[in-house]
Design brief:
The structure is a homodimer of 408-residue chains. The first copy, chain A, has 408 residues and is of the alpha+beta class. Helix content of chain A is 32%, strand content 25%.
Chain lengths: 408, 408
């Protein structure tokens, strides 16, 4: 099944090289496709690493190893296999990952704990060791490539390559951040795992890098959903080479830490939103802003309950300002809420305030707003100061077509 | 939009009269439809009542009042309004319910706390008091009707009338249980709230009636899902008139209590499954049996995570034995699980055991099973003795058509 480019796609941005980061791709041939499907990123000595991983209790070997590896805080290489997720493959799957790690650490003369591996694609089929070995061999010898080549090579059912970039000034020196990501459904283990990688030439201590990534993740990757499903392989890794020559950032009080975090947040938000923009069958990008919640975390859970509601998502698909479905989703979120203080709006127009429909509610501007590609839903719970913004897409016939009519 | 009768529908069963229960219907005209939309059930003096209600934090006035009323344990009347849910209507909505309660309690010379009211239909529009008053007046004067008439009158987007019946022998005397229910999506506040009512001529103390209903609810109504959405109005009420003349059941040690509970469970299970069988767009009825969980409650949550997964539901719609999506759903459930002990099967054939695909897995019988209307998924977590069975339906283009293409 050939998937058409998402109508919500964004062009791939201009992205600068990051000192200490070298990208290469190769063809391992994990599937019968005519494209590179193995990505190899070589990282300068001394590169710090941080990572966030799926909370799935059935995570892949790659994720299990990554969770352990990230604790020591350093990385020299990343390998991403596309076309086979190696998930649910037991010991044989684990052996394939260990083979890749051994091969790369041997070539780079680094520790095995410094070689990170991700895989995405069909599950239940152990990653073929022979293809992996030949693919890694080819990647080690390949010419360096650009960001978009790498972004394409990690994709599976993605309909467009996804990248984001930002910069920050640390003292008088500029550092760059560049990232790419794959993912289209959110998130199916056999086709649409979210894998994201961000690189910077700033120098950041591993523990602080992890703290910043976890914080940024809470406000970005943890705030998106396409269908509420969670992959066994979801991974975001952040690498800091330190090759820009800026002073080491080790805590929030260090000069430039706030500026760096702001840039990181920008890259994470853009990457997260790009995944939603490639949501299976998506025709509309939906931003849901929740305010007045008991706490920020409560606001996020309310937002995700709305974002995951099939009834809300189908209403938006149909251009229907159905605030009743939003009330329903708020009610089921299991978070503090008071029906008589709840307000709901679309595109900046309140439809209901303090638990009652507005008597002079004019649906015309709302209907016009819902005709557009970008939809905004505002929800004010009216009980506190917690707030969060989450992003999702609509639920359309296209989603059913991709996931039901097409047999993997 | 005219909805076609669900392909999974069941014929309305033969249901006996229940001594002490008198059914009447009338036309209040809440919507411009040519049918009865107000149901009035008169109950003999001394009738016990129990109830379970939506956990929504944004419940309707009817639910808020019902939660309070059920505590005193007795009922003389039930009124169900179809076409207007009266949810999210603030004080004006509450006044309409109080008017109905006053009108009925006045006619029956009973306490206002003994008159139960439910409403289902569009939200955000206060129940029109004039129509309610005239409708109740007509219902009070109407000739008694049968179960199927009442089952039809409480329906909204239901495509078939839903009833269930069972009997138990208490000592040498037979008691009957009869129930009817409405609901098709699970569960939208503006169209498809689940409202269920069960009646028996057994004599049961209110506290024990409540205990049995709560227990049966855990294994039936709480084990179904169509789209994971929860209504602001979901209600199940159980009325015991005592008119069969059997001894009062007041606890599990009373003779016949187990037999009565078994019959109650049977009615609840059938009613719950009928709601799934009318799931919006449903083409297949899916039973998911989870075993080997840490606890029964954990098994249920895992089962519901599978049942609510759009990726699992679309796979079944497509006749695809995609056990990888089941692994994903188990992993995201947030319950204890071990990837390497997990087994998954379809229609009695294991596809994966102990965390790995079976080497001799024959997909042919599974593919044949998935062609049928009734699909069974078995999941063995392999870590404990907890088990649960949940029921859902597939996710099809029909669901999108009903909820997105149709504007309410």
């Amino acid at each position: 099944m050939d998937l058409e480019r998402s109508p919500l796609a964004r062009p791939f941005p201009q992205m600068p090289p990051i000192a200490g980061v070298t990208l290469r791709v190769a063809r391992a041939g994990y599937k019968a496709w005519d494209r590179a499907d193995l990505t190899f990123v070589e990282l300068a000595e001394g590169t710090s690493v941080a990572g966030v991983f799926t909370t799935s209790a059935c995570a892949s070997s790659e994720v299990e190893m990554g969770r352990e590896q990230v604790k020591q805080g350093h990385a020299r290489a990343l390998i991403v296999n596309a076309g086979n997720s190696n998930a649910f493959t037991g010991q044989r799957g684990r052996e394939a990952v260990e083979q890749i790690v051994g091969q790369v650490s041997g070539a780079l003369h680094c520790g095995s704990e410094e070689v990170f591996v991700s895989s995405t694609g069909v599950i239940g089929v152990p990653l073929p060791k022979d293809k992996a070995r030949a693919g890694v061999e080819a990647a080690l010898a390949a010419d360096p490539c650009g960001w978009e080549d790498a972004a394409r090579a990690i994709g599976t059912t993605d309909t467009f390559a996804k990248g984001a970039v930002a910069a920050a000034m640390l003292g008088g020196t500029r550092v760059d951040l560049a990232g790419f990501i794959k993912g289209s459904g959110m998130i199916a283990p056999d086709m649409a795992t979210m894998l994201g990688y961000i690189f910077t030439d700033a120098a950041v201590a591993p523990a602080f890098l992890q703290e910043m990534l976890a914080k940024a993740n809470d406000a970005t990757f943890s705030c998106i959903t396409v269908d509420g499903d969670t992959s066994t392989s979801d991974t975001v890794l952040l690498f800091a080479t330190g090759n820009a020559g800026t002073p080491l950032l080790a805590g929030w009080d260090d000069a430039g830490a706030d500026a760096f975090y702001a840039a990181l947040l920008e890259v994470c938000r853009e990457l997260a939103q790009l995944v939603v923009r490639d949501g299976e069958g998506a025709q509309k990008f939906i931003e849901i802003a929740v305010s007045g919640a008991a706490e920020d975390s409560s606001a996020r859970r309310v937002g995700l309950a709305i974002a995951n509601s099939p009834l809300v998502k189908t209403a938006i698909a149909g251009g229907d300002a159905n605030w009743g479905r939003v009330v329903m989703a708020v009610g089921k979120a299991g978070e503090p809420a008071d029906r008589d203080r709840l307000s709901i709006g679309f595109g900046g127009t309140w439809a209901a305030r303090d638990g009652q429909p507005l008597p002079d509610y004019d649906e015309a501007p709302v209907a016009k707003h819902l005709e557009g590609e970008d939809v905004r839903i505002d929800v004010d719970l009216g009980i506190g100061s917690g707030r969060a913004t989450v992003w999702t897409c609509d639920l359309t016939h296209g989603y059913i077509a991709i996931n039901a009519d097409y047999r993997s």
